[in-house]
Each structure stands twice: as structure tokens, then as C-alpha cells.
Amino acid sequence: xxxxxxxxxxxxxxxxxxxxxxxxxxxxxxxxxxxxxxxxxxxxxxxxxxxxxxxxxxxxxxxxxxxxxxxxxxxxxxxxxxxxxxxxxxxxxxxxxxxxxxxxxxxxxxxxxxxxxxxxxxxxxxxxxxxxxxxxxxxxxxxxxxxxxxxxxxxxxxxxxxxxxxxxxxxxxxxxxxxxxxxxxxxxxxxxxxxxxxxxxxxxxxxxxxxxxxxxxxxxxxxxxxxxxxxxxxxxxxxxxxxxxxxxxxxxxxxxxxxxxxxxxxxxxxxxxxxxxxxxxxxxxxxxxxxxxxxxxxxxxxxxxxxxxxxxxxxxxxxxxxxxxxxxxxxxxxxxxxxxxxxxxxxxxxxxxxxxxxxxxxxxxx
Length: 366
Fold this sequence. Notes:
The protein is an alpha/beta fold. The chain has 2 domains: 1-112 and 299-366, 3-Layer(aba) Sandwich (Rossmann fold); 123-272, RecF/RecN/SMC, N-terminal domain (Glutathione S-transferase Yfyf (Class Pi), Chain A, domain 2, Up-down Bundle). The chain has helices at residues 36-44, 104-110, 128-142, 146-165, 171-204, 228-237, 239-245, 273-295, 312-325, and strands spanning 2-11, 14-20, 26-29, 69-77, 80-88, 94-97, 100-101, 113-116, 213-219, 255-261, 266-267, 300-303, 329-333, 347-353, 360-364. Helix 5 packs across helix 6 (228-237).
């Protein structure tokens, strides 16, 4: 799976950008603020979801100005090339596959991407919300239906929370909403559990320079309802407590992801900053490796400023693993020397800022 072309129009700092590509990794070097992350954010749109910044469509437009933005690329996967286009004229983002309007679910059937960005470095020490987003993003790479199940669950939970806050006691309404939450929640839990098992297996099946992470799903309060019936019963039993709190206190929205550095038997939250980064890289590589086994080709891999946080030996090991995987990995760094070990195994681009209103420019070569 790789992009053979990428074109941006009025996207973030890029007024116009066109890249001709092959299947090799892509090294983007340039100073801070040049627009490197903006490029890989555009690439992240080629998988279902909101992109690596989780930004609203209107926030992706180049400023100042009121023009909309466009991102277009040719994606080759499983021997077939699709032209995929994204656009916004100030409203919601649209997706087209081969010039036909498409849904995020349809996009997920042909495109996959995994990523690691600096904001994820706090994953193990921040709240459970961030770990759930990470887990759900990973699950979505395996299960295209995960996004719809999440939307259905959140919608039913919002409606139930409204009833709770208004002190409504009509059991028929609660039964209907809890049935919806239980149905979609069971799908979410099954997908998450399968994702954890897949990541653990992918780590165990490969020789890697990065540490192995033991993963487990845990519940922030009480037990972990696994089946649709268990979840429905748990919601019904918790109504009185939920009404006092004004929100649902049980359910898959309370799930957390626990991680342990296996070699040291130390929880990730207690590891050093460098170890926490290495654990994250290990999971991203495992995700890519598992997808390659499932789909016959690795996904797009996006690694923002990853080289700067690794010593030379581990950086070289990362590049070797990416090339062995055969992934088109998009990597950013402040200088071309960070990618010297890749040599001809990668295609290199320089991103700079012109004097014309902070416009980004992309040119081939270091």
C-alpha cells in the first residue's frame, strides 16, 4: 500500500504542493514550522477517521482566506490503484473514491494508516480518554465497522445521559437506549479485545529492537461487561447511581488500556520517558506488522519527529524494520542527517517556508 502521487491545494500552510512518489519510505526534513506535519496530516486522511490531529475540516484550510481546501492522491493497494480525493469548501469534509462520493467505512475497506506523533508521548501518563482513543484508532485499522459502532454508542449514551440529568424515570426509554448501547458496546468491546490480542501476537512473532509490551483491557470502575446481555444488565442495574451522577458510570466508555514493559515487568506509566517512547514505537510497528499479515501489504506509516527521540543505534534499527516491512513510512525531522542511514532506501524531500505569507514549499532531495 503506497501513494504514488499527492497533491494539496490551500491545505494548512501549503498553498499548492505536488509530490510524485514510489513505494519507498518518505523522509521529510526541514526546520520547525516549515509544514512537515501538515503534509503527513494530509496523508493521514487516507484512512478512516478525523486524521492525526483530529481537526475539524474548516481548521485545515490555509489562512488567511476563505477558499476551501483539497487533498488528492493515487493509492495503490492489493495491486489496484484508486484515486482518492478529500475536500472542504468551509463545511464538512467530503471523500471521493475514483470520482464517486464515498463514506468513511468505504475508505476503510481500501486504505489503512497508522501513526505516531509527539502528542502521543504522554499516552501512558495521561487520562484514560487518550488511551481509549489510541486503542479505538488501532481497532479501526483492523475493523472498518468500529467507527460506526462508536458513533452509535455515543449517540445512545448522550440521549440516556440527557434523561438522567432531567430525572426522567420512564423505563421504556431507558430500555430502548440501553439496548442500543449494549448492542454497539458489545461490538466495540469485541473489536478492542481482538485488537489487543492481535498486537500482542504480532510483537511475539517478530524479532525487533523495540521492547515487547503486555496489554490488557481494564475497567475504570467495577467489572468489565463483555457480552451484549452483560452490558445491558449492568446499565439497568446502575440507573439509580447514574441518575445521581447525571451520566453513565458503567459501560465501554469507561474502558482503559493497561500496558507493562515485559522485560522489566514494570507498568508503562512507571517507565522512563525513553522507555515509554520505545513501547509506543513497538505497538505502532506491531500494528503495521499485523495489518501486513492480514491484508497482504503493510499500511501507510506516519512517524512525526520520531527520529529526534531515538539514539543513532535505535534509529537505524527503526529504519531497518520499516524497510523490512516494506511500508511507505512518512517520517519528519529537522535535518537530513537524521535520515542518512536510509540512503537510497528512501525518497527524500525538503520542506521550507517562503517569504510569501509563510507558504510551505516541498522540493526533492535533502
